[in-house]
Amino acid sequence: MNHMKRRQFIKRVVQTAAAVSASTAFSAQRVLGANERVNVALIGCGGRGLAVAKLMRAVPGVDFVAVCDVYDPRAATAREWAGNHAKSFRDFRKVLELKEVDAVLIATPDHWHAIPTVLACQAEKDVYVEKPLGHNIREERTVVTTAKRSNRIVQVGTQQRSAPHYAEAARIVQSGAIGPVHFIRIWNFTNMFPNGIGRVADSEAPPDVDWDMYLGPAPKVPFNKNRFVNTYRWFWDYGGGMVTDFGIHRFDTMHQVTGAEAPVTVSATGRRYELNDGAETPDVVQVTHEYPNFVLSYEATNLNSLGTAARTPGQPYYGARGDFDHPHGEAFYGTNGTLMSNRLGFEILPELKAPSGPGAVGRSERPPGFRMERKAMSGEDATALHVKNFIECVRSRKQPVATVEMGHRASIVAHLGNIAYRTGRKIRWDASKEQIIGDADASKLLGRKARKPWDLI
């Protein structure tokens, strides 16, 4: 979308928000009571969507009154779960017309996160939307603007924000207990060798799929099974590979733990080395994000699942399948110790008191103890807490744990990594203006011209 059309769209958002301000207040009042019923619609009925919906319906006073998916079998499964009273649609816009719907849960493919969120906010619906917030940075900014102008609750599905052990990790790091932190590592390792997502030929779309609606704002291409359902993220038209899929949760956690908000430079390297499939995103990628006070190294591979960093006997590790692997995590390297975290908990590995390295002053033959005490805390996936927080905020109108702005900032880290990878150049980022400095070609990847009629944002 060019700048003029984008300004016109945002102007319409502002006008719409002003026009509905009174009715929004009535809508909010209707669900303010702690025990009032909240009617939710599920948009995107795949595995993740239905899993989150089940957790959301477990919150007292929540009901699902509509489901929507472009793939009929998934919509049918979701409607059977929701009950005969629930309505079913292929087009999410029909859902937004339902006056009885208070909120929507958006668990569509990534390229369909931003537009339904914007239109839902305009339709006076609150939104729980899975990460990333959008396909690109510019459409995400419009989501943020719309949510704020329309006074809607938008919770981003970065559920690690709701985990008590990550809150404690943030307290420890920001207190200075592990010492100054100037290097952070985040990693996501899987082993899809040798065939990756495989190769399939283009074909006619099955009759139970609305392929044109599925593509939506993305370029029109023939139906291909790999571009659909579980493997769409490995194509640039719909997602951003490992970086946006696995990375965003951990980028958000890194922001939470450190209090940082945005990098100033980003560079990346990698390629699709080995996997014999039809995917586009790299099977190995390393991204270096320079923040004002530390360096973040993000590492991802689809060729090995061992991961990195140490393991402690008895400590659980997210995604681990064997005795040695540590496939996903974050490590905050301080001068007193290293805090290593993942979705199942964290541990602090203390540094020895004696300095190390060539010519270290104060070095001794016998290590004289540690610079701090070891500490560990267990945890678990916090999606249930996250959706409970969302429903509480729908009722109270308080801001959720993972605000739309937080989700946008975490997504930016991932998008900039992919832009650096795709251009092969170091990106300099002006966070206040959300602009790439001095690189017109790279700046083109901040957004894209959406296919009509979805060229809205």
Explain what you see.
The protein is of the alpha/beta class. It folds into two domains: 3-159, Rossmann fold (3-Layer(aba) Sandwich); 162-383, 2-Layer Sandwich (Dihydrodipicolinate Reductase, domain 2). Helices cover 32% and strands 19% of the residues. The chain is built from 14 helices and 16 strands. It has helices at residues 3-19, 21-30, 47-57, 72-82, 92-96, 114-122, 137-149, 164-175, 211-215, 241-245, 247-258, 383-396, 404-423, 440-443, and strands at 38-43, 62-68, 87-89, 103-106, 126-129, 154-156, 181-189, 265-271, 284-290, 295-301, 328-334, 337-342, 345-350, 375-378, 427-430, 435-436. A ten-stranded mixed beta sheet has the order 14-13-12-11-7-10-9-8-15-16. The protein has a six-stranded parallel beta sheet with strand order 3-2-1-4-5-6, with helices on both faces. β11 and β12 form a beta hairpin. α8 (164-175) packs across α11 (247-258). The longest helix has 20 residues, at 404-423. The relative contact order is 0.15. Residues 1-7 and 9-32 have low confidence and may be disordered.
